[in-house]
Amino acid sequence: MDNVSGTRPLCLVTGAGRGIGAAIARRVALAGSPVIVAARSQDDCVAVANELVRRGGRAWPAYVDVTDPATLDEALLELSDEIAEHGGIAWLVNNAGIAETAPFLRHGRGGDGDTYEKHLRVNFHGPRRAIERLAPSMLERGHGRIVSVASSAGLIGYPYAAAYVASKHALVGYTRCAALELEGKGVTMNLVAPHYVDSPMTDQTVERIVKKTGRSAADTRAFLAAQNPGGALVTTDEVSAVVLELLNGAQNGVIAEMPGGSAGGKPAVNWRT
Length: 273
Fold this sequence. Notes:
Blueprint: E1 10-13, H1 19-30, E2 35-39, H2 42-54, E3 59-63, H3 69-78, H4 80-85, E4 89-94, H5 115-141, E5 144-149, H6 162-182, E6 187-194, E7 197-198, H7 200-213, H8 217-227, E8 234-235, H9 236-248, E9 255-258, E10 262-263, E11 266-267, E12 270-272
Parallel strand pairs: 1-2, 1-4, 2-3, 4-5, 5-6, 6-9, 7-8
Antiparallel strand pairs: 9-12, 10-11
Helix pairs in contact: 1-9, 5-6, 7-8
């Protein structure tokens, strides 16, 4: 779908320096839409943006710390000419996130502050603030697509992950409510909720389990894959394919739960409302 300027919609992806975010930026750019590759890791953002340009896409790196709204404002100002050229940011993908584990009674006693507050700042308030910053202009133009990468942790509970689970549940609840208010206004808001993904975040989980249990990395990865209902880790490419489907479509208020594995040659997806 083209935006009002006649060009492909401009997309901003947070947490786009690696893993799921980088895969989404690649998928969107190679499908023909320009992308703002945003994250705190500037070296990674520059590398991803440069790769996309080499492959024929249009992309710009941007320093955005989702816990600091000023960094988003500064990035938008710095890229104001590019944004104006494309008629505004029409697509927003909220992907930046963190995940730390601990017994639920210890989450509030982390060395760098309350872990519950830390997860909410990144995983819930980060997307909320980006939406509040960009959705008004989408509504003015009568077109916009917002997709947030949640997790199966926004649908069910996991032991030793109370802060992460709580933050993702908050994101899911917020999105469900906001989507109802957006109905019929040309702007849609949806969620992708993958189970364990073969990503850098899962690599960190594997490292923690190996260190704690002495189990091999290969056995640990196989164990995590077996926890997915589909019996396989979700790939970053599979997540990016579903995100692009939602960006291109007109669905609103849906949750694309990804259990792992495939169905009919496509990533397995349980569509929830």
